[in-house]
Amino acid sequence: MKILVTGAAGFIGFYTSKVLLNNGHSVVGLDNINDYYDVNLKYNRLKELGIDTNEASEFNKACQSKKDLSFSFVRMNLENREELPKLFENEKFDVVCNLAAQAGVRYSLENPESYVDSNLVGFLNLLECCRNFKIKHLVYASSSSVYGLNKKIPFSTSDNVDNPISLYAATKKSNELMAHTYSHLFKIPTTGLRFFTVYGPWGRPDMAMFLFTDAIVNNKPIKVFNYGKMERDFTYIDDIVEGVVRILEHPNKERIEKNDLYKVYNIGNNNSVKLLDFIKEIEINLGTEAEKNMMPIQPGDVERTWANVDDLIRDYNYKPNTSIASGVKAFVDWYKGYYK
C-alpha cells in the first residue's frame, strides 16, 4: 500500500514508518519539525529512514530532493489547508496513519493555542482530505489521558471519558468524536488508538524515561511527582508499533460489510508498574542510585493508568510481551550510544 504517516519525525511515527517500509509498503512521511523538543533528535530519526542532511537550514531543500521508491518526506503543518489537499491529490494514498500532534500534558497549560492548531484544526483538515480523496482507512493516535480521573482499573474503552483534566486530553477526546462523525457521515473507516506511556530508544526527551536517565547520568536530582505514588502502564515502542501496523495492514472488509466503521482501542502493556520500580530499573542499568526530589502531583497528571487490551487481542491477536527490565535496558543502551 501507499501510506501517509504524519508525525514521521516523531518517536512513534519514526518507528511505524520503519516497520511499514520493512514490510514492503511505500511511505510518505509528514512532519512540521517543530521545536517542542530538540529538533536534532528528529533530524537523526529521519536520517535513519534515509532522509539525510548536514545542515538544518538546508533541511527543506534536502527533503524536496530526496525521494526514492519507498520513502519520501514532506515538511508541512497539518493545518495547512492549501498544501495538504495537494499532497493527497498528488500521492493518492491508500491509508493514513495520523501520529502528528502537539504532545505533552504539562505543556498544554503553557501553550494551549498550539494544541488547538495541531490537534483540532490539523485533524479536521486531515479528515477532510480523507473524505475528499477516498482514503480506505484512517488510523490515528488518541491517548490514555482521555480517561482523566477515572477510578475504575484497568481502563476500558467502554468507560465514560467525559472528564479530561488537561487540554491535551480534551483535544484527543475531540479527535475521537470528530472521527466518529466522519465515519458516520462519509463512511470512512477510522480507528483511534489510546496509547499508554510509550517508551524506548529514540524516545521523547520530555518523557519520564528520558528525563530520569539524563538527570542520573549528569549527576542531577530527578523530580518524582506525587511523592512516588504513581503507576503507569509503560509500553515498549516495539509493542506499540506492532499493534499500529497490524491495524494498518488489516483489509477491514468485515467492518465495511457490517457498517462498523468507527473503532477505538487501548494499546498498552496491560500492566500497571509503580513509578519507583520503573526508576529502580533505570538505576540498575546505569549502576547509579538517583537523588530523588519528592514533589506533589502536577496539574493535569493522573495517579494511575492501566490498559485493558482485551478487544485488541480479540480483533488483532495483539499481545505485548516486552518486560520493563528488557525495555529499560534497551533505552539505556541506546542513550549511552547516542550521547556517547
UniProtKB/TrEMBL annotation:
<dbReference type="InterPro" id="IPR036291">
    <property type="entry name" value="NAD(P)-bd_dom_sf"/>
</dbReference>
<feature type="domain" description="NAD-dependent epimerase/dehydratase">
    <location>
        <begin position="3"/>
        <end position="268"/>
    </location>
</feature>
<dbReference type="Pfam" id="PF01370">
    <property type="entry name" value="Epimerase"/>
</dbReference>
<keyword id="KW-0520">NAD</keyword>
<protein>
    <submittedName>
        <fullName>NAD-dependent epimerase</fullName>
    </submittedName>
</protein>
<dbReference type="InterPro" id="IPR001509">
    <property type="entry name" value="Epimerase_deHydtase"/>
</dbReference>
